[in-house]
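Technical note accompanying the year-one report. For the benefit of new consortium partners, we illustrate the data format agreed upon in the data management plan: each record pairs a sequence with a structure-token string. No post-processing was applied to the example shown here.
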Amino acid sequence: MASFSADQNGTHDHILRPRAVKPGNPMVLRAQSQEGILKPPSITGDIPNSGLSSGRSTPIPEDAPPSIQSISSARKQVRAQQKHRLFPTVDYTARVSHFDPKSDYRDFRGFFVLFWIGLAIMVLTTMLRNIRDTGYPLRVKMWTLLTANTWQLGLSDLVMVVSTGLSVSLQMMFRRSNDILRWSKLGMPIHSIFQAGWLILWINWPFMLNWTWTAQVFFTLHTIVLLMKMHSYAFYNGHLSTTEDRLSALDNPENASTAAAVRYPSSSTHLNEIEQETENLYNEEKKVAISQLREDLALELTSPLGRVTFPQNLTFYNYADYILCPTLCYELEYPRTSKINVMELFWKTLAVFGCIFLLTITSEEFIVPVLHDASLRLRGVESLADQSLIMAETISLLLFPFMVTFLLVFLVIFEYVCGAFAEITCFADRHFYEDWWNSCDW
């Protein structure tokens, strides 16, 4: 499709413009960015520094070890060309949400508004029906479940989040160790045991305290999210610690390993392709040039924007920032916006509570009564045919409320909660989901 607009002032807005199409490959986005089609904020201007570096190169002495010189060269090279690194499987780019008015998908916004109009009509008719039947606009059975165990839930969640910070201390200890506690030796098993014990404790915590099912569901889901974030942080930094050891060992190449730098597959690459590519790239371990290997290792220790180098990121401030960032994949540095949009944060926070309100009404009015009525009817029949008919009718009555619940849960998590934390942390990549509404299968 194309859009046509005429300008009465004589400007050149009469040109037919094709609708913007989303590139299917992250590498295409990078290529467009380099060619000027996409214009991300400049490194020195619009994107603030998220690490500890000032963004300027510190002069190094001429007699510095080769490992130090390689890291300095790698940071300059990454800043210049943003080279694809080995470990990450996610390309973080400054992008807006699909529902943002500035998105290329803004034509979908009409259906988005229609969805909210439908929900507003549902709420209005529900309130009028409740006033007629009970004299009150809303029922309060579900609200008692949501407000139960509030203080215990909040304090327990806070303690659980703080306890994940032990990962930082463990990574510092592994890196300072000279032998047996290195990540490549006992470091990984020790942290894996810590993660297993941490998971067992907090998964059982809400059941030990006999919380309501709503509090149990929230706490369990948050526990799983924190486990994934903690695992990504620990294993990526462990990988960088091992890479740093290899780079330092190359200062004396006679006794150092010259094996190829480990390349981790991207999300669209098969393992056999990586093995073949690695074999073709290096051919044989003995033929790998020390300088090339040193460069590969130094690039692996440098952030995508070239301003943070491991171990500058091993701080509690950096970990706290990562915990608040709406991503499960740890990276040395993320693209950032220039400042917090206060009004955007306000509307997203308000939308979170609005979605919770709508979820409560949907459950209270269209799910719980249907399940309660079905349980009473099933007790009074013994015929398999009658039971099957009741089950089929119950499922048909629940299909639409469950679909509305699914859409609201998706919105509240990926659009509003993640969007609010993205504003708080100035996280520039708001692309938390693909255009799932165009999906033809699961």
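Partners are asked to follow this layout when depositing records. Residues 1-57 have pLDDT under 50 and may be disordered.
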